[in-house]
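Q: My collaborator sent me two sequences in one message, no labels, and asked for predicted structures for both. Can we handle them in order? The first one she listed is below.
A: Yes, handling them in the order given. First sequence, followed by its structure tokens:
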Amino acid sequence: TIILRGDLGALVSNRVNRGDVMFAGAVMSFGLYSALMSRRPKTHQLSLISFTIGCGALLLLPFSIWEFSTGLSPKFDVLTVGTLIYVVIFASTLAYLFFNRGIALIGPNRAAPFLHLVPVFGSAMAILLLGEQPRLFHLAGYVLVLAGVVIASRRQSGKV
């Protein structure tokens, strides 16, 4: 609902933009990551995060080389450096530490529904920080996601 901006016709009319497709791919990748966490080698969490980030950096290296070769380069101003520091500390390190701990505590099946909070927080941050206008589809998406998380994360009683 949030990604499609409340327009289910966007699926058939191919009005989904490239960023939406990239986001859907990221969600699927993160779902796979979550499902495979129970099979990871027993190692310190920071070692696992370092390895994962290193692999991600290697995968992004060809794209970075291409970008630099076309003349695009980041400008290192206060905003860029501050954003980089935020991403390294919060979005990369702490978020993965907390999510991995959550998976260890409740298992991947019960942790997986929380992945769907990403578009909720992403769109809420766009509204708060980027001035995006809140729309009815935001509210509908938030309600659907939160209801799904609550329903899916409840312990099922009465089952053996």
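Q: And the one she listed second?
A: Here it is, processed independently of the first:
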Amino acid sequence: MLSEKETRDLYALRAMLEGQAARLCARHGTPAHASALQDAVDALERARLAGQISGAIAANAEFYAALFDGAGNDALRQMLGTIRNRTALFRFSSTRWPGRAAQSVAELRAIADAIAARDADAAERAGVAHIEAAAELALVILAERARGAAQARAHGRAVISKGD
């Protein structure tokens, strides 16, 4: 499990890099990239409404594939892949957090809309805002896991003490 500092650092870096990916996609992406982003957000919303986590995961992967393809920077894609792998547990946990899926769809739609409009500044802002919201939730999840672990340890000590 990541520490709070590692989590903050990774999400800060991810926000910068994903903001840059959105900016580059708005500048260099094709209409096909913009269309693929919109299609992925629509698929994500359908999956969310149907309660299909596997569909949501697939649509999210399609969104990021289109974003990174449109950005056209393989080094950026690789760096983000490494960071996304390190934060995968938070992404999975957040899919079950009340209200987060709907918020995430809205955030990704803002990114897709800004890219379709070729507004690089808005795309970057939306990309950063999306990851900052994800970071806030990741820190909440991390704190809850730490509290749960502490309670489990305390409960275990209490059970052992009673057995003495």
